[in-house]
Amino acid sequence: MTVHVSPDACPALVLNADYRPLSYFPLSLWSWQDAIKAVFLDRVNIVEHYDKVVHSPSFEMQLPSVVALKDYIRPTRHPAFTRFNVFLRDRFTCQYCGAANDLTFDHLIPRSRGGQTTWENVVAACAPCNLRKGGKMPDDAKMWPAQPPYRPTMQDLHSNGRLFPPNHLHESWLDFLYWDTELEP
After folding, report:
1. Confidence check: pLDDT of 55 > 90
2. What gap in Å lies between CA 35 and CA 31, rounded to an integer?
3. Which of 10, 66, 88, 167 has its C-alpha lying 20 to 30 A from 174's C-alpha?
4. Gap between the terminal Cα atoms of the chain
5. How far apart (Å, rounded) are the C-alpha atoms in residues 15 and 3?
6. Rounded distance, CA 7 to CA 88, Å?
7. C-alpha gyration radius of the chain
């Protein structure tokens, strides 16, 4: 029995010129179309292939499964402040009770008391804890975060991202990914 795999099920892992993934979470992946376009524009080297071949009337090419950029992209030292990045820094857990669902973010010093929306004042919190704390200061609410909030580096976020491997990792990617399966998220 022959199983036909759609090219859409064949994303390419994108590595920087130093052969490290551009990001772990989300994992740096390109569609097969973007990968082939980058090959033709001479922006990447093909490192690994899928067994899948795509055809045009005059051309045939094995789909790349891993590509490496020819030009090194210097990673930014400090990531943008976003809700997702706060959750990633805090490992997708409420900093008050450890819950992993219904996450929001909480201002340690409430905005109503002059608290700013900054890395150093915001933590991931589940909705029930956020409601319980409300506009109170941590001491008044008797609620302190498990980890004091801080401004993470990209390395911090990449390290945390490794704790959450995607559901599917193609075998050709494994030599380039370093998932820490010993630590609990």
Report:
1. no
2. 6
3. 88
4. 40
5. 29
6. 30
7. 21
Q: 5 exposed, middle or buried (CB, 10 Å; 0-12, 13-18, 19+)?
A: exposed
Amino acid (one-letter) located at 182: E
* Residues 6+ positions from 177 with CB-CB distance below 8 Å: 13, 21, 24, 27, 165, 169
Stronger pLDDT, 128 or 23, i.e. the higher one:
128
Q: Give the amino acid at 160.
A: N
Residues shown for the chain: 185
What the block records as the tokens of 165 is 């491997």
Q: What are phi and psi of 86, to 5 degrees?
A: -65, -45
What's the CA gap between 2 and 16, in Å, rounded?
35
pLDDT of amino acid 120: 98
Distance in angstroms (rounded) separating the CA atoms of residues 97 and 89: 16
How does pLDDT run across 93-151, given as a tens digit for each residue?
Answer: 999 999 999 999 999 999 999 999 999 999 999 999 999 999 999 999 999 999 999 99
